[in-house]
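Subject: for your reference before the review

Hello V.,

The reviewers asked for a structural picture of the protein, and I figured it would be easier to keep everything in one thread rather than splitting it across files. Below is the amino acid sequence we used in the manuscript, unchanged from the supplementary table.
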Amino acid sequence: MKVLVIGSGGREHVLAWKLKQSPQVTQVFCAPGNAGTGVDVTNIDINASDSERLAQFAKNEKIDLTVVGPEGPLVGGVVDVFKKHGLRVFGPSKAAAALEGSKAFCKDIMRQASVPTAEYRVFKDAEGAIDFIQERDETPLVVKADGLAAGKGVVVCENKLEAMAAVNMIMKQNAFGDAGKTVVIEEKLVGQEVSILALVDGKTIITLEAAQDHKAAHDGDTGPNTGGMGAYSPAPFATPELMDTVIEKILIPTVHTMRKAGVEFRGVLYAGLMLTSQGPKVLEYNVRLGDPEAQAILMRLKTDMYDVLCAAADGKLKDLPQLEWDDRTAICVVMASEGYPGPISTGHPIRGVDDANALPDVKVFHAGTAVQKGEVVNTGGRVLGVTALGKDVSDAKRKAYEAVRCIRWQGAWCRKDISDKARTAN
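And here is what came back from the structure prediction:
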């Protein structure tokens, strides 16, 4: 069987790596891929947003399954193009991907489904948004660009001045381009964050093992929001009772409400949750595997990934045996470029990845890398996801950071506290 993975980040590297492990899979392609996928599988020089060329490649190569990694192509309708050509593809349609492509649409679906989430208002002009902020009591707010902004379109504001500055940055200074033409302003939720990812085939929902992401740039959850600086799985906060609640009160109502609206959801439904004193509330939905959650979660998956994704794509999840998991803890530490999440310095040669990969229970997944003049260099903000398995959280953390210490390039940095939140779990 031949598989095509669309995308170029760490999530796509772990997907390609995992799919290649299936005894059924003879070849894995990644379009366009990165320096790491170029080692593990075969890179194809087609942009992830070029849906027609990708579909034509899949037809010519007789690809048996295409897996779409990033949100951009999904929101752009790549799945619809593949289905039009009669190709098997894993991922939601353009209409279903609006759940991530528009935060306002997402909040409206949650309201219709009675899914617990933060109170919110949607604004299409900066003046209306600023008036709303000024009229409110002084409480922390979150200002979100409505569209896709590579995980950076969310600004957590502790007071009115910060909230108004965020509106001006997003709507007047166009910090995120067209993604910021509409903003969602909501109350700030307080608690532990947990990521619950589920496979959905339109009718059946199968949850994956839970993970906890670290969105803030710096230790202690300080600094600006990023696409994610690290993750670990399993997350001790995600108790069996919590998982039952999430399935019953959040995932099932959302999928049902989408179907009632004439939109069948097939793909990954990712609920970013805040565990508040009133119970779990949804911060946002994504429609693909999280990055870096995917690295930590899939490092632990023992079931054949090809079987899993084919069942989801074919609407046959109900026939899939229960997923098998490695009982150990996986931790992914993201190594980033100097300046991230702001302007970054790129093109620096990366050393030591082979040394890190040689360590037991370690795999380095590439994200923002490319080969230039025979050397692997950094090309993006989040560069590598250094991932390790350990018998418990402490062991996995030790192994992950031992691997991090093997790797160097000019300006490289990472958070030092990935997984420390696990110690505060009851």
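For the response letter, the relevant points are probably these. Residues 348 and 410 are 6 Å apart (CA to CA). Residues 240-260 form the longest helix (21 residues).

Happy to draft the paragraph if you're swamped.

O.
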